[in-house]
Amino acid sequence: MAVRDAPPHRTGRTAGAIAGLWPPRGAAQAGGFAPSGAGLWAPLAETLRAWARAEAGAGRLLPWVPVAFGAGIALYFSVDREPVLPIAAVITIGLCVVAFMARRNGFFPALVMIAAVAAGFATATWKTARIAHGVLARPIYSVSLSGFVETRDIRDRTDRFVLRVTRMESPREQIKLERVRLSVKKGTAPDVGSFVDLKARLLPPLAPLRPGAYDFSRDLFFQGIGASGFAMGAIKTVPPPDSGGLALRYSAFMQGLRDAIDARIRARLDGDERSIATALLTGRRDAITEPVNDAMFISGLGHVLSISGYHMAVVAGVVFFAVRALLALIPGLTVSFPIKKWAAAAALFAATFYLLLSGAEVATQRSFLMTAVVLIAVMVDRRAVTFRTLAVAAMIVLAIAPEALVHPSFQMSFAATLGLVALVQIGMPRLFATPDSSTTAKVALWGGRELVTLMLASLVAGFATTPYSAFHFHRVAPYGVLANLGAMPVVSALVMPAGILGLLAMPFGCDGFFWWLMGIGIDWMIVVSRWVANLPGALGRMAAFGVGPLIAASLGVILMGLLRTPLRWSGTLLLAVSVAWAVAARQPDILISGDGRNVAVRGSDGRLHLMRTGKDAFLVKEWLAADADARPAADPSLPGGVSCDDAGCVVPMADGSLVAQALRADALTDDCARAALIVTAKQAPPDCAAAVIDQGRLRRQGTLALWRKGNEFAADAVRPKGYDRPWAPMAPGAADNNDGVLISRPAPPRAQDATPSESDLQSED
Prior knowledge:
Blueprint: H1 12-19, H2 38-55, H3 65-78, H4 85-101, H5 108-130, E1 140-154, E2 158-169, E3 179-185, E4 195-203, H6 216-222, E5 227-237, H7 246-266, H8 271-282, H9 290-299, H10 309-328, H11 331-336, H12 339-357, H13 362-379, H14 387-400, H15 408-431, H16 438-445, H17 448-473, E6 475-476, H18 480-505, H19 512-533, E7 540-541, H20 547-562, H21 570-583, E8 590-592, E9 598-602, E10 608-612, H22 617-626, E11 643-645, E12 648-652, E13 658-662, H23 668-674, E14 677-680, E15 691-694, H24 695-701, E16 704-709, E17 712-717, E18 742-744, H25 758-764
Parallel strand pairs: 3-5, 13-14, 14-15
Antiparallel strand pairs: 1-2, 1-4, 2-3, 4-5, 6-7, 8-9, 8-16, 9-10, 11-12, 12-13, 16-17, 17-18
């Protein structure tokens, strides 16, 4: 014990060495031995607590507020019925007051997060109530419409415009719609701002093509559109009853400006060169042909076609450095005035004009807000590229348009930007921390730093957006870095600057040369995209998976982006879980379209086999993409194994049981006896031995996905029982139906054995 109680004058090294021979006081256990891992947990726990305290330090709360706000919006869109706005508002106000009162309490960060979730939920509820309008529930085959043309899209095969309806007359329907979107023959779309009379056929907004797919009807609802369709006959332009308002005049002016730019570009370029040039400058990308569009997205260059942070940064950067360079040529201004701030103001004006010219889509709004905050920071001598900048931009976008959260553009845009900001703040300083070393200096002289920066930016942005690309588009771009390295320097140095100079030269009539230069760069970008898209394995297909893996992947990306301590690597665990979860997702055995005309059944070969009585290439293309199936919608192998006649079709499942599509009532007798499942618009007999999906259920629930479970089918519907939202109103009588998640095959009546026993026969004899 004398060694243990050594006097304090010993050197630290000696004392530490001797003390290490003895266990700490109180560590002895029964039997005289301590657990082997007991000494590891305490330091680990202390390290974790230190990391957690560092993450909860001053200024670290703000970037998490938009995350919680977005979680509240996501919760709103996940419920089956519309929340009550006053209750949501009262709860939000109460939670905000509680958080404010507890601002000096240790629970303040948690209370702020809870209040932010409630605020996001209430904001989305308020936005829906504010823009509430009628939505068409069933087709109208002939209706007379009058109204103002608000927008116009020039597409590859047809044109399309949005009509703000002032008069709507139909002999059978009394519903009134505020806006409709109509397709017309190419070249016949009326000008924006004109007042027209026409006849049209209207259809309800397109519902999701399969359970879990993107909801087009929700997208149209938040655009104020209650129906889509096409014009029938001639479109008459007539004198308007009023001016249409200031907003319409602004839309007409901007549309005229876009048309003028497109006309000047058309004078020098044609085909996809013209379409891509117009898309980069005005945001109108519908005229790009399908092969080039597919090649751009397969190669990983699809982000170039959507005006986002990259385009806004190039526009603002070119204007900033050009103005600053010109002002620097005047010595008096350089010495006496803040020309850097003047250049930032000019760049902000240019970014604002670009926002208005491009139509102010969600990605463009986000990128403008980011660029504006950066430029304002330059003008007030503050640090520009920070997580706070991104948080402010996200909060503004979500507060104005909460529906943007569920749009692929918002998800991919902010994920990529989060990764890039993290790279700038965390990765770049470490990568180039010693630029004076001889090796680094030599590489930098040859442009190595810029090349490495571009490669890292492509890797980080591609990695951050992969979960959303796989979820929404069922594909990934394994060669995205290669395509970006080959094309983006040309786009940055030639295409976008030439486009900006072309816009500046338009008023003077000397813009043709710049459009020609822009076309050269676009040609190179198309060549790169096609080359990469044709490489082996260029298209990574991903089968559809649920929203759970997407949420896990999103949390992983957020943790890796926002955390500063080694706790950020916990995000990789979430990403690994999301990948395993997504890959393990079981694909449906049967898909049934909302009108019952298309039925896809998984056969013994593991692929879908299609029974269809209607032609819907878009729906079939989506089904095949969600199944990671490379076949086109017109592939001759799709109906393989399907037997059809005038009465209907039959196809076997993987286990050999039959699925029937009955077109006539007289076919139901045989189908009920032989099939496991029948899809029909007819009334099945009450003693039918097969499970039946009738037209009524499809009308109530939309497209169905079925999984075989023994003698039953588990069903997932686009509109589950009780689902009633403003963009997908519940069908009449749907609340009283018996639609369940299991579709059972009725048990056939048990046949009784009629053979008499031998004793009974002998007694009668």
